[in-house]
Design goal:
This protein is an alpha/beta fold. It contains 11 helices and 9 strands. The structure holds guanosine-5'-triphosphate and magnesium ion (MG).
Length: 302
C-alpha cells in the first residue's frame, strides 16, 4: 500500500489543550500538561503511525505577544513550526470561545494560514451542549476560512479518530520520516527535564513555575545499577531558591521523589536523581543564557 506521511503543527492560545490533544492522539503522555497557561515552551514532535499513515505532530507553545526574552524564544518555536508543516491545526478552547481572539490570531498568522491546509479544532466540547457546539461551528465557518472545522474533546477522547483520518486525507503520498515505532525524535534528556518542570508546575504556585529552567547536567545510563541524573533547577532570585528548597529541604525532597517516580516510569529503568537549585538573575531576559540553553535539552531532529 502507498504510504501517506506529513507534518501537522498544533498551534493555539495558551491553555487551549494543544498538548492534551497531542497526548490523546498518541495515547501517551509525551507533552506536559497543566492547568496553567504557558506550560509548553519548546516544539515537541509526536509521531503517530498506523498502517500506511504516519503523521508527525508538532506541539507548540501558546500564542502570545512576547513580554520578555524567553517568550520571544517561545514565539520562534511557533513560527518555525509552520515551515515544516503540511497542515496547521489551530486549537480553540470552545468553552472560552471568543470570536475576537480568534480574529486576532487569524490576522496575526494570515500569511502562514493561507499558505497551508488549515484545520480548526474546537476542543473541550465535553463542557458544552451539543446545540452550542453546532452553533459555534456555524459561526466559525461563516466568519473564517478553514479547510476543516472539527469539534473534539482531548480529555474524553471524543472525535479524535475522526480528526486523525481527516488529517490523513490532506497529506501527500510519501515515505515515512521516522521508524514506525518511534513516538518522538527528541532525546530522553529533554523529557527528563520536562518531567521535573511539570512537577515544579504542580507543586508550586504563582511565579515559581514561570521562573524555572531545568538543566539536566548529567545523565548517565548504567548497565549495572540505576541511571544517574543530576539536574539543576534554575530560578531567577535568591528568594525563589529558598521557596523551592523549603524548610530543611522539605520541598526539594518531595519534588525529587515525585519527579524520580515519573522519570522511572517514563524510562522504564530505576533512576538515581539528584536535584540542585541555582540562581541565575533574571535568566528569562538573559539573551546569552537563552541562546545557550533554550534548546539545549534537545530540539526536535529529523
Ligand atoms: N474539560 C476539558 N479540559 C481539557 C481538554 N483538553 C485539555 N483540557 C485541560 O486544559 C488545560 C490546559 O491543557 P494543555 O494541554 O496544557 O494546554 P496547552 O494548549 O498545551 O497549553 P500551553 O502549553 O500552556 O499553551 C489542562 O487543565 C487540561 O486538562 C478537554 O478536552 N476538555
Ligand atoms: Mg502545551
Amino acid at each position: 500500500m502507498q504510504k501517506i506521511s506529513g507534518f501537522a503543527a498544533i498551534i493555539g492560545t495558551p491553555n487551549a489543550g494543544k498538548s492534551t490533544l497531542l497526548n490523546s492522539i498518541l495515547g501517551q503522555n509525551i507533552s506536559i500538561v497543566t492547568s496553567k497557561p504557558q506550560t509548553t515552551r519548546n516544539k515537541i514532535f509526536g509521531i503517530y503511525t498506523k498502517d500506511n499513515i504516519q503523521i508527525v505532530f508538532v506541539d507548540t507553545p501558546g500564542i502570545l505577544d512576547p513580554k520578555y526574552r524567553l517568550q520571544e524564544f517561545m514565539k520562534k518555536e511557533i513560527d518555525s513550526s509552520f515551515a515544516e508543516s503540511d497542515i496547521i491545526i489551530l486549537v480553540i478552547d470552545a468553552f472560552k470561545y471568543d470570536s475576537g481572539i480568534l480574529k486576532s490570531t487569524y490576522e496575526k498568522y494570515r500569511t502562514e494560514f493561507s499558505a497551508h491546509k488549515l484545520f480548526c479544532v474546537l476542543n473541550k466540547i465535553d463542557l458544552l451542549k451539543k446545540e452550542e457546539v453546532l452553533e459555534m461551528i456555524k459561526e466559525v465557518s461563516d466568519q473564517f476560512k478553514f479547510d476543516e472545522i472539527i469539534p473534539v474533546s482531548a480529555t474524553k477522547k471524543f472525535n479524535i479518530d475522526d480528526l486523525i483520518s481527516t488529517i490523513a486525507r490532506y497529506l501527500p503520498e510519501s515515505e515515512f520520516y521516522f521508524e514506525p515505532d518511534a513516538v518522538t525524535s527528541q532525546p530522553e534528556k529533554f523529557f527528563v527535564a520536562e518531567i521535573i518542570r511539570q512537577n515544579v508546575l504542580k507543586q508550586f504556585k504563582d511565579e515559581i513555575p514561570f521562573s524555572v529552567y531545568i538543566d539536566v547536567e548529567e545523565f548517565k545510563e548504567r548497565e549495572a545499577g540505576k541511571d544517574y541524573i543530576r539536574a539543576s533547577i534554575i530560578v531567577e532570585r535568591d528568594s525563589q531558591k529558598a521557596i523551592v528548597i523549603g524548610t530543611s529541604g522539605s520541598k526539594i525532597k518531595s519534588l525529587g521523589e515525585s519527579s524520580r517516580r515519573e522519570i522511572e516510569n517514563f524510562l522504564g529503568r530505576k533512576t538515581y536523581l539528584e536535584l540542585f537549585v541555582k540562581v541565575r538573575k533574571d535568566w528569562k531576559n538573559d539573551e546569552d543564557f537563552l541562546k545557550k540553553n533554550f534548546n539545549k535539552q534537545g530540539a526536535p531532529v529529523i
